[in-house]
Amino acid sequence: MIAPARGNPLPEWSTLTFAFTETDYIVRAEGDASREPVWETGRIEPYGPISLSPAAAVLSYGVGIFEGLKAFRREDGHVQLFRPDANAARFQRSAERLSMAPFPVDLFLSAVDQLVDANRRFVPPPGRGSFYVRPMQHAVEARLGFGACHELAVTMYGSPVGAVGAKSEAIRLQAVERARVAPGGTGAAKAMGNYAGSVHVAGPAREQGFDDVLYLDARTLTNVTETSGANFFVVNRAGQLITPPLDDQILAGVTRDSVLTIARDELRLDVQERPISIDEVLAEAGEAFCTGTAWTLKSVDEIAFRDRSVRFPGREVRDRLWEIISGTQTGRRVDTRGWTRLVPEGASRR
Ligand code: COI
């Protein structure tokens, strides 16, 4: 039996953005790496503040990771998740990179089911958006000195967020001679600190009217990597779809992987995961777009770099990919890849 929540108001569905809306419930689970099993199963709690020791390692040392995934309401009323197993696997890889005990995949999936089911009334109607799930794992151990932590917690909350239209609202990027993450660092993990440092870089670009920055790789400051929170793709004049290969500076995006899979198997494009320099992007690309769970697929209209600015008029590849991905996510298209998972009715009461 879950404790009754306050009953927060529903948002206005027609004006949803990526802004946060307080919902009714969160899910929490504690872990202790010095016992077996390490992790307890998640439990539903009313939405509200969580308490932490002021000495919790996450607060001083940033020992924390997070995920982002989405649930969609289908026309038949059922609610489905998009590729939650991929997020569960990445949550484990990120935890291991930060020397935390990984949260088991089955516990991750049942916690997401519980969270979405308990907050089902906050899942937007079909076509109006999605319910964004934010799982986090933190080292909550009180530690003055720095080292591996045993006492851990997983917390998940969610928020209804807006839909992106069939036509991409194209964005403007400023390529910067800066790296998002350090070579050999935590760039392949979804670690808190990777995001904290980017505000300082993206802020000035946003003040100049750009939507975000495009980082170069830390070793050479030549090849493009990612924006602050999305992977980057181009289509060159020969029709090749190119994205930087996974390495220590690239996050293995779930949307990135979905794009690559569909581009290869269904659109039969010539797909290349290879380093691509900013000079090649500016000289050869006819189309550019960013991918991420939050960003979805966003066409890039313009990239400014040093004293140059180049426009990218192409939209075709992005639009074809988005039609397939968004159709699968929302249940408009048959899911031939086993990427969706229904949230069982009553999952939060089991
Ligand atoms: C996501 O795309 O889900 C992310 O976590 C990126 C974040 C910058 C919103």
Can you put this structure into words, describing what you see?
- By secondary structure, the chain is α+β, with helices and mostly antiparallel strands.
- It folds into 2 domains: 13-165 and 339-349, Aminotransferase class 4, branched-chain amino acid transferase, N-terminal domain (D-amino Acid Aminotransferase, Chain A, domain 1, 2-Layer Sandwich); 171-314, Alpha-Beta Barrel (D-amino Acid Aminotransferase, Chain A, domain 2).
- Helices cover 23% and strands 27% of the residues.
- Strands 1, 2, 3, 4, 5, 6, 7 and 16 form an 8-stranded antiparallel beta sheet that branches. Strands 8, 9, 10, 11, 12, 13, 14 and 15 form an 8-stranded mixed beta sheet that branches.
- Helix 2 crosses helix 3 (105-118).
- The termini are close together.
- The mean pLDDT is 96.
- The protein binds 2-OXO-4-methylpentanoic acid.
- The site of 2-OXO-4-methylpentanoic acid has 6 residues, from loops.
Brief account:
By secondary structure, the chain is of the alpha+beta class. It has helices spanning 57-61, 84-97, 105-118, 192-196, 199-207, 254-265, 278-284, 316-330; strands at 25-32, 43-46, 64-66, 69-73, 79-82, 129-139, 151-162, 171-176, 212-215, 231-236, 241-243, 271-273, 285-292, 296-305, 308-311, 340-342.
